[in-house]
Amino acid sequence: MDLVIRDARVVDGSGAPSYRADVGVTDGRITEIRREGDGPRPSAARTLDAGGLALAPGFIDMHAHSDLALLRDPDHSAKAAQGVTLEVLGQDGLSYAPADDRTLAEVRRTISGWNGDGSGIDFDWRTVGGYLDRLDRNFGGRGIAVNAAYLVPQGTVRMLAVGWEDRPATDAELDRMRELVDQGMSEGAVGMSSGLTYTPGMYAKDAELTELCRVVARHGGYYCPHHRSYGAGALAAYEEMVRLTRDAGCALHLAHATMNFGVNKGKAPDLLALLDDALAAGADISLDTYPYTPGCTTLVAMLPSWAGEGGPGAVLARLADDATAERIRHHLEVLGSDGCHGVPIEWDTIEISGAGAPSLAGYVGRTVAESARLRGEEPWVTARRLLTEDRLGTTILQHVGHEENVRQIMRHRVHTGGSDGILQGDKPHPRAYGTFPHYLGRYARELGVLTLEECVAHLTSRPAARLRLPDRGRVLEGYRADLVLFDPDTVAAGSTFDEPRTLPVGIPHVLIDGRFVVQDGRRTSVLAGRAVRGAGHRAR
């Protein structure tokens, strides 16, 4: 064998009690597990003494925004240092494939707050398969920092076939969208995502989404919606997604599934009852959450959907017109825009986390309300300035969550972990650097919301099952040696809201395909990550 990890506390990902064992690795796979006392100990060319550290499958981030970071940053310690060995990209209905020249420019501008503008990256792909191939041959063919799977982004697909117009798709446009989703799934996507509070994906009606989900289902994939509301009408929005996917015969994975804003305080049991009823009736449902109360998105996402029609240039033109800007303010502050989940915006909950324009750096770390008070102006005046001067690139933290909802949802039997980590901005959400150790340290060890074994199962085997990966997510012989060694007594997120880019503690070793990407607490130069293609992939 290439490597033996001796005297590890194996937390195998199944949820079963942990046990002591030596674990052998050969050619990137687990080839022997010798439990304590079960005969002679295996030998190998190299030995690592775990000293009782927990040995678990590598963590799977079911909701990641590393679409460009993996191409730009060979280190990528934001995820590697957490023990993440696989990320799922293409989230919230907006990413960089499939695309043509026009839509690629538009999407780069639209989600620059999530991923940066992509300067310095050669966008030499236009298809899902081309993007996945690019991941494999990145950095001179060495690959990427961690493994990555991809969801076909429904908003980008609509951008290609329909544009930015708020109207039903024609029959020809719907056929084109079906073709694009079918091609993306055939080329290796694991499913399809939507951002139904983001333009232009939010313009799709249920019938259109159902037809696209039928295509996803034929390839064995799943639908991952950021649904139409996490605020007013949240429960109805969840019910809509359950009904839609059942009609389509498609598996459903609910993105960052929570109940936010004052209207949903204490209402997690209502969501869980809805899911339990659907599961009992035969629905195939899973969900992911991050273990924090604030959310994170872009400031422009708060605007009403009509303000986004026509794309980024049209948004900026509307903001420049005083009468139209006043209408936007009225929707935000009085009516409750669909971009803000049907709830009138509370500017003291909107904290600026990042601005692309250097002249706006002074706003970062303050709420819009605080910045407005300092300037002696109304909050909308401040927000309008940010949107205009930053060319829609401003990112925000939205402090609208409830701790009791977070804890109850993470206990559910179909729950998985997802960071929803935006890596851009001067002060990003700490979940980007801390989600997985925060689950293990705060919610398992300190609060006991989950046992250690349950927590690891939520972060490993459950997401692997949703992704239909037959050889990942467990410490079992024959499985890939994507592994993490951590200290259950000390593991913790280093990242905080004040210092969000601090790396975790208590995770000394991380392996991908049996190669150390983190060793003795330090990131190595190894690039062992590759594109992980879905069950519907047809080799070209």
From TrEMBL:
Report the leader peptide range: none
Q: Name one GO molecular function term.
A: hydrolase activity, acting on carbon-nitrogen (but not peptide) bonds, in cyclic amides
Spell out the GO cellular component terms annotated for this protein, sorted alphabetically and separated by semicolons: cytosol
Q: Which SUPFAM superfamilies match?
A: Composite domain of metallo-dependent hydrolases, Metallo-dependent hydrolases
Q: Which InterPro entries match?
A: Amidohydro_3, Metal-dep_hydrolase_composite, Metal_Hydrolase, Metallo-dep_Hydrolases_sf
Q: Which Pfam families match?
A: Amidohydro_3 (PF07969)
Occurrences of domain Amidohydrolase (ranges): 47-518
* CDD domains with a match to the protein in the record: D-aminoacylase
Q: Organism's domain of life?
A: Bacteria
* Entry-linked PANTHER family: COLLAPSIN RESPONSE MEDIATOR PROTEIN, HYDRANTOINASE/DIHYDROPYRIMIDINASE FAMILY MEMBER
Q: What is this protein called?
A: D-aminoacylase
